[in-house]
């Protein structure tokens, strides 16, 4: 007769343990699982993605109903185990079911901590823990406008991002002065705050909530400093508590969590505990990686396979908010016995910190560029001595000046480096699955190894390992929709817009059966761009689909003020314009005037209400320093003044900027013109760089000077200025027509390949046709501020910040 194994808690840790056990000893137990929730086992982590519109509820099921059947597991959903009878060895549920056990696993997870505030029981006050909470938020967003998230940790920020995507106005209330204080130090936290403010999130920092206002339903919060903030929805994300009540009332030893030894055994024979409810060596974890390790140990124990036992885990975290790269691992705070190596680049928004004690890396924080995360995490785990190499450790992939990415990064990784942190899968594990099991796609790797199956953050790295082993052509790419609202990719959406003559986002989303009819913050700006690109005359730009900076035609700064950058073609100005700018800076008491990297003047710290009047006084075109558009054409003085110059770089730059200003492009575009190969305008790190040579010009493409440094490739050499304009027009239009929204030219070029692009532009008739299309679009572009001021549409069109 088989032994009876009962699992209480149908969640991530418990079921993962059962999966392992079935592999090790498929016929050893009769298994029964109880779960309070009415669902089969699902990926709780991806609730953030569901809320953000990047995944569907059906995508997050890990094991569907049939899995239980196929493995002969008796599943009782919607049943909460309320009592464990240790003497008679049976469990009882609130629904009256009673089941005997030989072995019992308690994996009841955590409960969200609800602040015991007056009014916390009002309608509209919820946590973010399960499918029900997620559905409540989605439904609330259809009816109400304003949400407050209490808690600026991982969960709070992911909830806030999701609610923004659902078109709610979102404020995050945080008790400390810095966000994610449990994972980040102050500089990284400030950079994160700035980035999220740019995405439209509002923060109320150092705020302690005193009570929740409203009669039946919440209407707002009152803080201990006396201030109040309105809200139709309050989401509490202030941490979790191990759900140990069942164990406690059943006489099993508990502290904060259920006390378990290295073999996940409680103090009662045949009763084990794993997951967030368990406490191992004084620690209850709140991330899946350690919980899966605990499950693997217990599976071995129950299968009778030798194990060293669970030794505890060092954890690493990544925030799952699109467009934000944050990584934190180990002990990242400074103390008297630690030293830290730091790198901070405010221009590119990159911050890296590595904390060292006794010659060993013990913690790291990365913001902006997290490519080194897995390498640093491997060092923290291995405890290798890095004495004398501390700076190399910090610079890592970017040592030597050129940041490694993609396949190069994989090549530099050691075999035991972890690729998937959630599931503990190393590079060697993935390489083995490719070579021995014939995996050719990320999905197949997921099925074989579990890598990428939890938070999904490692998907790009798994894809890079595939490309490293199989070469780019050997990898089967799986079709991915442009966001969770649709399964259609970029090309299919653009093709449908053309074929079905769709001219508004509403039409696109209705006709193509978006599963979220309103779209989300990922697809709305993308669809708006594609429509404008395909139908420049018919499509009316949908301002509400644009990001906040583009809606307000200015760059929001970290303190809520704006920056104003007037257009200065080719970086050339006049004394008259300079005097005007100086007078206006003085008149509006602009706190800071600064030159930008693109040779423009930036007036920083401008109050929102001063923007229209300032632009009216300036009477200069907008510099588009905020837009997915041509930003600047940087020039050197060229032959006009420089003794080395062979061509008129400034003149060429001015012509280009006048031609392409205001053009909508998939992502920002930067240009530069140098008057000779000395290349003082740094044209070889621009999207389109022009370098004068004897008797003509070289046209360089696909450069990027940001976090992912990329030098340009030579497109061609031409003789005349007219040819420069013709090739650049054709190139930009080809990028506009084939680029994915948000894809810089450097990524686009790598995706398409230089040869494809050259072939598309090679024939004069193709270049002429592309130029005709770009000219049509350019002819329709208007200066936004001029339009606002002239048409006196100020109050209607100037959307206040959300
Ligand atoms: C929105 C969100 C995003 C997250 N993102 C990440 C991330 O990116 N990375 C990461 O590592 N972690 C993340 N986490 C944390 C991760 O989801 C948890 O660490 C993990 O789910 C814990 O697994 P568990 O099995 O211990 O608990 P759970 O998954 O909570 O499972 C416990 C289950 O037991 C059930 N249960 C409780 N008591 C009883 C009872 N008496 N009888 C029957 N059933 C019972 C519960 O209803 C629940 O379904 C996230 C969590 C949330 C909420
Ligand atoms: N990407 C990820 O890895 C991820 C995402 C979501 C959730 N999770 C996990 O889920 C669990 C819950 O996440 P969490 O963010 O709630 O927990 P947390 O403990 O990490 O963060 C809670 C935050 O709330 C703040 N806080 C506490 N009291 C407050 C108050 N009265 N007012 C305002 N702020 C207050 C704390 O300072 C803290 O920063 C954690 O274990 C977390 O690791 C992980
Ligand atoms: S790139 Fe050549 S022309 Fe231009 S400033 Fe430098 S040396 Fe002079
Ligand atoms: S790192 Fe989370 S799924 Fe791989």
Automatic annotation (TrEMBL):
The UniProt annotation places [4Fe-4S] cluster binding at: 636, 642, 676, 680
Query: Which positions fall inside the BFD-like [2Fe-2S]-binding domain?
Result: 418-467, 482-531
- Cite the PROSITE patterns for this sequence: NIR_SIR, PROKAR_LIPOPROTEIN
Tell me the GO BP annotations in alphabetical order: nitrate assimilation
Q: Where is the FAD/NAD(P)-binding domain?
A: 4-280
Organism per entry: Cohnella cholangitidis
Name of the protein described by the UniProt record: NAD(P)/FAD-dependent oxidoreductase
Q: Which residues form the Nitrite/sulphite reductase 4Fe-4S domain?
A: 627-764
Does the record's keyword annotation contain Iron-sulfur? yes
Binding residues for siroheme, per the UniProt record?
A: 680
Pathway(s) where this gene product acts? Nitrogen metabolism; nitrate reduction (assimilation)
- Pfam families, alphabetically? Fer2_BFD, NIR_SIR, NIR_SIR_ferr, Pyr_redox_2, Rubredoxin_C
What keywords would UniProt list here?
2Fe-2S, 4Fe-4S, FAD, Flavoprotein, Heme, Iron, Iron-sulfur, Metal-binding, Nitrate assimilation, Oxidoreductase
Record-linked InterPro entries: BFD-like_2Fe2S-bd_dom, BFD-like_2Fe2S-bd_dom_sf, FAD/NAD-bd_sf, FAD/NAD-binding_dom, FAD/NAD-linked_Rdtase_dimer_sf, NasD-like, NiRdtase/SiRdtase_haem-b_fer, Nit/Sulf_reduc_fer-like_dom_sf
Start and end of every NADH-rubredoxin oxidoreductase C-terminal domain? 316-383
The entry's family comment says: Belongs to the nitrite and sulfite reductase 4Fe-4S domain family.
């Amino acid at each position: 007769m088989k032994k009876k194994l009962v699992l209480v808690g149908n969640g991530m840790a418990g079921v993962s343990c059962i999966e392992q056990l079935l592999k090790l000893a498929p016929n050893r137990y009769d298994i029964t699982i109880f779960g309070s929730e009415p669902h089969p086992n699902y990926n709780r982590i991806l609730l953030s993605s569901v809320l953000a519109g990047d995944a569907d509820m059906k995508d997050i099921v890990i094991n569907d109903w049939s899995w239980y059947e196929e493995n002969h597991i008796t599943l009782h959903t919607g049943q909460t185990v309320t009592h464990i009878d240790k003497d008679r060895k049976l469990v009882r549920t609130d629904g009256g079911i009673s089941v005997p056990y030989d072995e019992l696993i308690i994996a009841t997870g955590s409960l969200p901590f609800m602040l015991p505030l007056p009014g916390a029981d009002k309608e509209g006050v919820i946590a973010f823990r399960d499918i029900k909470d997620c559905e409540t938020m989605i439904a609330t967003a259809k009816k109400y406008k304003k949400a407050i998230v209490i808690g600026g940790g991982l969960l709070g920020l992911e909830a806030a991002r999701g609610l923004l995507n659902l078109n709610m106005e979102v404020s995050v209330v945080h008790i400390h002065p810095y966000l994610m204080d449990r994972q980040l130090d102050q500089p990284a936290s400030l950079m994160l705050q700035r980035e999220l403010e740019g995405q439209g999130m509002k923060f109320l920092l150092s705020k302690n909530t005193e009570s929740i206002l409203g009669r039946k339903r919440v209407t707002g919060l009152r803080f201990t400093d006396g201030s109040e903030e309105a809200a139709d929805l309050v989401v509490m994300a202030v941490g979790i508590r191990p759900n140990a009540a069942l164990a406690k009332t059943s006489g099993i030893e508990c502290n904060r969590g259920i006390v378990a030894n290295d073999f996940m055994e409680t103090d009662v024979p045949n009763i084990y505990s794993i997951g967030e409810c368990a406490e191992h060596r004084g620690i209850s974890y709140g991330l899946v990686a350690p919980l899966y390790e605990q499950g693997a140990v217990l599976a071995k124990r129950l299968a009778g396979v030798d194990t060293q036992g669970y030794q505890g885990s060092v954890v690493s975290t990544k925030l799952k908010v699109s467009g934000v790269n944050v990584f934190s691992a180990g002990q990242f705070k400074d103390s008297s016995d630690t030293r830290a190596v730091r790198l901070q680049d405010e221009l590119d928004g990159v911050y890296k910190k590595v904390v060292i004690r006794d010659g060993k890396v013990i913690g790291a924080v990365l913001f902006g560029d997290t490519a080194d995360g897995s390498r640093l995490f491997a060092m923290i785990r291995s405890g290798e001595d890095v004495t004398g190499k501390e700076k190399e450790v910090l610079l890592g992939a970017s040592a030597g000046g050129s940041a490694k990415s993609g396949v190069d990064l994989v090549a530099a990784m050691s075999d035991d480096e972890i690729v998937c942190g959630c599931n503990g899968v190393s590079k060697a594990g993935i390489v083995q699955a490719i070579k021995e099991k014939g995996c050719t796609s990320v999905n197949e790797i997921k099925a074989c190894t579990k890598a990428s199956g939890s938070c999904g953050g490692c998907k790009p790295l798994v894809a890079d390992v595939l490309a490293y082993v199989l070469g780019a052509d050997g990898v089967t790419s799986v079709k991915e929709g442009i966001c969770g609202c649709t399964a259609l990719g970029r090309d299919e959406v653009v093709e449908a817009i053309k074929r079905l003559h769709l001219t508004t986002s509403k039409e696109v989303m209705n006709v193509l059966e978006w599963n979220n009819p309103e779209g989300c913050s990922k697809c709305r700006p993308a669809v708006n761009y594609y429509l404008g690109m395909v139908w420049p005359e018919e499509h009316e730009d949908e301002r509400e689909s644009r990001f906040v900076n583009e809606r307000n035609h200015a760059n929001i700064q970290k303190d809520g003020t704006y920056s104003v950058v007037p257009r200065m073609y080719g970086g050339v100005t006049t004394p008259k314009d300079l005097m005007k700018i100086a007078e206006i800076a003085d008149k509006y008491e602009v706190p800071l005037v600064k030159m930008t990297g693109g040779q423009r003047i930036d007036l920083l710290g401008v109050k929102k209400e001063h923007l229209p009047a300032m632009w009216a006084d300036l009477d200069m075109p907008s510099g588009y320093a905020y837009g997915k558009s041509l930003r600047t054409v940087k020039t050197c003085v060229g032959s006009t003044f420089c003794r080395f110059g062979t061509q008129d770089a400034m003149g060429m730059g001015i012509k280009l900027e006048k031609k392409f200003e205001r053009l909508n492009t998939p992502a920002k575009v930067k240009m530069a013109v140098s008057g000779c190969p000395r290349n003082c305008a740094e044209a070889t790190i621009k999207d389109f760089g022009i370098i004068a040579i004897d008797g003509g010009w070289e046209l360089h493409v696909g450069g990027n000077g940001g976090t992912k440094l990329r030098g340009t490739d030579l497109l061609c050499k031409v003789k005349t200025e007219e040819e420069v304009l013709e090739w650049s027009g054709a190139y930009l239009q080809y990028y506009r027509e084939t680029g994915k929204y948000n894809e810089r030219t450097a990524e686009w070029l790598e995706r398409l390949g230089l040869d494809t692009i050259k072939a598309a532009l090679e024939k004069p008739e193709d270049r002429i046709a592309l130029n005709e299309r770009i000219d049509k679009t350019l002819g329709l572009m208007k200066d936004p501020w001029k339009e606002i001021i002239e048409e006196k549409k100020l109050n209607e069109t100037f959307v206040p910040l959300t």
